[in-house]
Amino acid sequence: MSDKIIQLTDDSFDADVINASGLVLVDFWAEWCGPCKMIAPILNDIADEYDGKVSVGKLNIDQNTETPPKYGIRGIPTLLLFKEGNIVDTKVGALSKTQLKEFLDNNL
Questions:
Q1: Mean pLDDT of all residues in the chain?
Q2: Position 1 pLDDT exceeds 80
Q3: Residue from 103, 96, 59 nearest 81 by CA
C-alpha cells in the first residue's frame, strides 16, 4: 500500500477529511469485497500520481461502523470526493485507472 494513503477511522474522519484543505478521495471498502481488492492497486498509483493535488483515504466499513451510514453508503467500493468538507462527486463500484483519473480530473 502506498505510504500516501491515509487509513481513516470513525474517530479520524473529521480531522482527515472534513477539515482537510483541498480534495480528499475516500474509498469505503471491506476485506471481503472483491471489487475493493481490484481497485486497491489503482488507488495506490493515484495516491502517488496525484500527490499534492488529491489526498487519498481508505475507510474499512467493518471496522468503522459510524461513518458509512452518515454518507448513505450501501454498496462498496464507494468513492466519495470531498472538497472543503463537502461531497463534490461520488462513484460506486470498481473503476479502471482511466475512469478514476477522469473522475478526479473533472473535479480538479
A1: 96
A2: no
A3: 103
Coil, strand or helix: which one is 20? coil
Q: What is the C-alpha separation between 39 and 94, in angstroms, rounded? A: 6
CA distance 74 to 44: 24
Alpha-carbon distance of 29 to 45, in angstroms, equals 17
CA distance 81 to 86: 8
- pTM for the full predicted model: 0.96
Nearest by Cα to 106 from 91, 92, 94, 93: 91
From its phi and psi, is residue 36 left (phi > 0), alpha (psi between -120 and 50) or beta? alpha
For every residue of 34-93, DSSP letters joined together read HHHHHHHHHHHHHHHHTTTTEEEEEEETTT--SHHHHTT--SSSEEEEEETTEEEEEEES
pLDDT digits (tens, 9 = 90+) for 5-34: 999 999 999 999 999 999 999 999 999 999
Question: What residues are annotated to the active site?
Answer: 33, 36
